[in-house]
Each structure stands twice: as structure tokens, then as C-alpha cells.
């Protein structure tokens, strides 16, 4: 009986840890989208500076494009850390599921959500086409980070080129 209570407390602790970091991950991504959207909007406005020879506008656009390069990188690294913490909690929950399954003598693995998820995801990925492939949160978030980073980098190159033509 004491061991059951201890296991339930461990499960609750692991679940709270998982829940906290999963929530942090979504909040961080939402914050990334807001910041990147604001920077992209400012960048669109500053692109009009490419048609002028006023250096201060070009330097403002250059600074915004640098920001749009750095923000995705910082949030990508943050997402990697949070993803690691989530995986850590998932491993603990898998172990608790295994102990529970053994102690309760249940044969069904369909209720072991964390333990069966990897197997089911792999099966989906094997039978899906390239167009309908299964993307994880990490891959989807990485694509968003890459998109905004590339937009910032391309604009950075354009502003550098324009500043070079104005100065020289």
C-alpha cells in the first residue's frame, strides 16, 4: 500500500514536471511568433528604405534584419532545452507506466500512453508519404525558426548591399 502511494506521488510529480515544461514550450513559441511577427512587420516597413538613399533608414532596416536573424536562433536554442526537459519527464512517465503495468498485472499496453507513443509514431511515419509525413513539434517549430531566420538573413544581405551602393 505504501509503495502504491509512493508510485502515485511519483507519477503526479513527473506529470506536473511534464505539464510545466510543455506549457512553457507553447508559451515560448507563441512569444516567438509575436516577436518575429512584429519584427517582420517593421522590416516590411523599412524595406521602403531600400528605394531611398537616406542612410539612417537603411541602418534601421539593417538592425531590424539582424534582430530577425537573432530572435529565431535564441528561441530555437530555448526550444531545444525545453524539449530536452520534456523528454526527460516522458522517460520518467514511461518508467512509471512500466512499473504500474507490472504491479497491476495488466497485459494491455494501449493505456500506456507515453510508452506506446513512440512505437505508434514510428509506424505512422513508415507508412506516410513525403507530402503527408508526420512532423513533430520540434520539426514544425524548427521550420518556423528557419523561415523567419532566412527572411531576416535575406533582408540583411539586401540592406548591406544597398548601404554599400549608397556609401561607395
What does this protein look like?
- The protein is mainly alpha-helical and 168 residues long.
- The protein has one domain.
- The chain has helices spanning 2-47, 55-104, 113-126, 137-167.
- The N and C termini lie far apart (81 Å).
Notable characteristics:
168 residues; mainly alpha
User: Distance between the terminal alpha carbons, to the nearest Å?
Assistant: 81 Å
Structural class assignment:
mainly alpha
Instruction: Give the SSE string.
Output: HHHH
- Total DSSP helices: 4
Instruction: Extract low-pLDDT stretches.
Output: none
Q: How can the largest sheet be summarized?
A: none
Helical residues, percent: over 70%
Number of strands: 0
Radius of gyration: 24 Å
Shape: elongated
Number of domains: 1
Give the overall pLDDT as a whole number: 87
- Assess the beta-strand content as a share of residues: under 5%
Task: Please summarize what this structure is.
With 168 residues, the protein is mostly helical. Helices cover 84% and strands 0% of the residues.
List strands and helices in order, with pairings.
Elements: H1 2-47, H2 55-104, H3 113-126, H4 137-167
Amino acid at each position: 500500500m505504501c509503495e502504491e502511494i509512493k508510485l502515485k506521488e511519483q507519477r503526479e510529480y513527473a506529470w506536473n514536471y511534464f505539464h510545466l515544461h510543455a506549457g512553457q514550450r507553447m508559451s515560448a513559441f507563441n512569444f516567438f511568433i509575436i516577436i518575429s511577427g512584429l519584427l517582420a512587420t517593421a522590416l516590411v516597413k523599412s524595406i521602403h528604405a531600400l528605394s531611398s538613399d537616406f542612410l539612417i533608414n537603411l541602418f534601421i532596416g539593417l538592425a531590424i534584419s539582424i534582430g530577425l536573424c537573432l530572435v529565431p536562433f535564441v528561441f530555437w536554442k530555448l526550444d531545444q532545452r525545453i524539449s530536452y526537459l520534456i523528454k526527460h519527464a516522458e522517460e520518467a512517465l514511461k518508467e512509471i507506466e512500466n512499473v504500474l503495468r507490472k504491479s497491476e498485472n495488466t497485459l494491455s499496453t494501449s493505456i500506456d500512453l507515453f510508452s506506446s507513443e513512440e512505437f505508434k509514431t514510428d509506424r505512422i511515419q513508415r507508412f506516410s508519404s513525403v507530402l503527408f509525413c508526420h512532423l513533430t513539434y520540434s520539426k514544425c517549430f524548427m521550420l518556423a525558426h528557419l523561415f523567419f531566420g532566412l527572411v531576416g538573413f535575406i533582408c540583411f544581405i539586401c540592406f548591406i548591399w544597398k548601404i554599400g551602393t549608397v556609401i561607395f
